[in-house]
Design brief:
Elements lengths: L2 H14 L18 H13 L6 E6 L3 H13 L3 E7 L2 H13 L6 E5 L13 H8 L4 E6 L14 H5 L3 E10 L4 H10 L3 E7 L5 E7 L9
Parallel strand pairs: 1-2, 1-4, 2-3, 4-5
Antiparallel strand pairs: 5-7, 6-7
Amino acid sequence: MSSLRALLQWSSFLISYRLPFSLWGLPDWSWSMDVQDFQTIIDVLRGYRTAESLYLVELGAGVSTLVLAHLLPRLFDDAHLISIEGNESYARQLGDQIKSYKLDNAVSLHHVPYANGYDDCWFSRDSLRNTLNDKKVDILLVDAPPGVLCPRARQPAIPFFLSYLKPNSVVFLHDTRRQEEAAIAEAWSRYFNAHYQIGTPRGIDVFEGRSDNNRTIRI
């Protein structure tokens, strides 16, 4: 996509949702999702219903953290974003941005390191358990770890989070145009009542309703 076209798309998106134009000027490392990805997530959030406090957990922090932290209070009376980042430097930079935008009440950012084990390179499970503190999760957005860490780096997310997800939970898996993420999506689909493939430029798959017939996933 040309830089001019990208600028026009992002300008329209930021205006439509009354988001700060300064988001466009953030460093490249913080950009992963594009306009179509965000629109998919927003459309799902608009239709989500819960009588309780809503918790959205994001694996992989960046501009998405700032966008969601701006939007969640407008969509729900009681909602909080828990953002998990494995790269300490990224987490520190994003923490500064959260403070500058005064979003501390909407989002909690946590550096949870990647830790080799269980034949994968996923987040430290003990640290993540301590961070979640038994909270039940409504929405899970999986955009990390980066695929360069190890094969199928994101696959452990569902084995870990199954016990945290509410029955009517929604899970997003980003980058499903990549072969490994597409394979992960196929593996995850059996654990949910519905699975949708959204053809955004990078690909984002949506899983709805944790199945009652969940079995232990062996990776």
